[in-house]
Every structure is written in C-alpha cells, then in structure tokens.
Design a protein that fits this description.
Length: 174
C-alpha cells in the first residue's frame, strides 16, 4: 500500500465514529424497521419501535446537554458502542433498556396504561406518600366531597368546538 492509501486509512480510522455512527444509528435501523413492518412477527416490530424510542431519547439528551457532552473525551465512541448494543438483535439491548428503565417510569403498573404524566408514588422525607391521589384525598378530607366535585366540574367545562376556546363564568373566552 502506497503513501496515499496509508493516509486514507489513517483518516478513516481517526474518523471511524463519524463515518460509522450514521450507518449504525440510522441506516441499518431504517432498513430493519422497513423489514419489520413488512414481516408478520410482532417481535421485530417491538425491537425497532423500542430502538426508535431510545434513539429519540438519546438525541434529546444530546441536544439538551450539547455543551457538557462536547467536553467528554470519548463520547462519540461510547455513543457508537451503546448504539451498536441497542441495534444488534443478538444483544437485545433496546428491549433490555426499555423493560428495566423506560417502562417502569412511563407505564402505570396498576392500570397497565402508558401515561407520560404518570407520577409514581414516592415517599417524602418523613415516609409519607407524595402523589396526586394523596393530594386529592387530603383535599376531600379538608373540604368535603362537594368542594372536590366543584373543582372537577370547573376543570371539565365545555370547550367551544368551533373556536377551541372555553367559556367560563367571567364572560371572557380563554
């Protein structure tokens, strides 16, 4: 191999993460997603939907913390390795991360419904539950059921279907 071939090889190796990143994180998953859509199996659909959810989350984190991430010396190589682990079906990395980290946060275990606003019950410093249901129970104890129903009714006022605005007692459109 001549001097030009060696220089080309050096450039490719120095920029491997930049060259391989889009192929591993976008091109192959796109191809595999199309194949999954065309197949009859729901297993590969779940693998690639899960991958795209995780890819979106990684991208959001990167965009949010770009100034901090640029100071991490091997971030691009670490991201490439993480993406390979998520993408390669042999490892089932996307399914593992989803089942152990994402699903417990976004899926209510009691109703098995997805709710991005789901707030898991947690305990405050004194060991008391601190969540929406506890706040509602506390309000009902203090003010009674009728006061709670009044609040719910105020929140459920009809929205004008033609304008998208609700009309409240004060006469103004909100």
């Amino acid at each position: 191999m001549g001097g030009g071939g060696l220089s080309f090889l050096k450039v490719v190796l120095k920029n491997f993460d930049i060259l391989a990143g889009p192929v591993v994180s976008l091109a192959y998953p796109l191809y595999a997603s199309i194949r999954a859509i065309e197949s009859k199996s729901p297993v590969d659909d779940q693998q690639w939907l899960t991958y795209w959810v995780l890819y979106s989350m990684i991208t959001l984190i990167e965009l949010t913390f770009a100034k901090v991430i640029e100071w991490i010396p091997l971030w691009s190589y670490g991201k490439l390795l993480l993406t390979c682990w998520l993408v390669i079906p042999y490892f089932s990395g996307a399914a593992y991360v989803y089942e152990h980290f994402i699903r417990p946060v976004f899926v209510n275990p009691h109703t098995r419904t997805v709710n991005i606003w789901y707030v898991p019950r947690k305990k405050d410093l004194f060991g008391k539950r601190d969540d929406i249901l506890t706040a509602a129970e506390k309000y009902i104890k203090e003010h009674g059921t009728d006061a709670f129903k009044d609040i719910i009714n105020k929140a459920d006022r009809k929205v004008n279907p033609t304008s998208g605005y609700g009309f409240f007692d004060d006469g103004y459109r909100h």
